[in-house]
Amino acid sequence: MTNKSNILPFIYSLLIIAVASFNCSYSKSTFSGDRVKDAIEKIVIQKSMNKAQLDFISVPRTIEFEEPNVEADIIVPDEIKAGINNVSVKYTINGKLLKYIDYNIRVKLLKDVWVAANKIAANSVISMNDLTLREIVVFNDVNFPSENELVGRTASRSINKDDVLKVEMIAPDVKVKRGDKVTVVVVSGAVVIRCSGTTLQEGVVGDMIRVKRDGSQNVVSGKIASDGSVVINSGNITYNQKNKK
Fold first, then answer.
1. Which CATH fold would you assign to the domain 110-169?
2. ∠ at Cα 153 (151, 157), nearest 5°?
3. Closest CA to 159 of 125, 206, 194
4. Fold topology of 181-244
5. Higher pLDDT, 27 or 155
């Protein structure tokens, strides 16, 4: 969707080119490729709060219309991301569409990210003293973790000083621990049976862990669900487990 408040200054600069050409030839509207490129650069940089550097994969060329007073509308994404972005220029006269041209641009963004202030050992808990904020050039649309997603979490591997912190460097939160009381959900076709049990392993959502059902010595394996329960499909119960019932 076009953001009129952002594009109007640049639409105006393009219209000057068209009107000047009209005044000379009395019949045409001309939009210089260099001025179109410059207008796109300005709006992208403005929209990214001066944090963007961009290269044109497809470069605007000078375009000419037989009609006078053609208007140009520059359309950019609602959010400028690192990597490939698509921008468009829509040419109209009296609301009638004459031409719609797409351009691909490669954007590098200056972004504040958390880096390791010192070496962080694997399996250690990350503290605020381990972190420092630094501005770097980002070439791809990567989701960097926030302070809240780092402090108090466990490093999944050794992290060197000045390494940029990424999501994969952080161990997932432990959803259940060994010895926790959990709800065991046994699914057999359309039948669902719920009971309580005790975990024999720790794990996170999606992990398969062993659970001992309360009041029984029977040990079964199930997958940790997002609500913390352990779901067991009866078809996955082993022969030995069935014999223990």
1. Type Iii Antifreeze Protein Isoform Hplc 12 (3.90.1210)
2. 115
3. 125
4. SH3 type barrels. (2.30.30)
5. 155
Fold: same for 110-169 and 181-244? no
Flag whether pLDDT at 41 surpasses 60.
yes
Please report how many Cα atoms fall inside a 13 Å half-sphere around the Cα of residue 27, on the Cβ side.
2
Domain boundaries, the chain: 4-106, 110-169, 181-244
**pTM attached to this predicted model:** 0.57
Helix/strand number for the chain, H first, E second: 3, 12
Please say whether the beta carbons of 63 and 100 come within 8 A: no
Question: Which one-letter DSSP state was computed for residue 164?
Answer: B
Burial of residue 113 (number of CB atoms within 10 Å: 0-12, 13-18, 19+): middle
pLDDT digits (tens, 9 = 90+) for 93-142: 999 999 999 999 999 999 999 999 999 998 888 999 999 999 999 998 88
- Residue 107 · residue 141 · CB < 8 Å: no
Nearest residue to 56 via CA among 44, 73, 68: 44
- Amino acid identity of 124? S
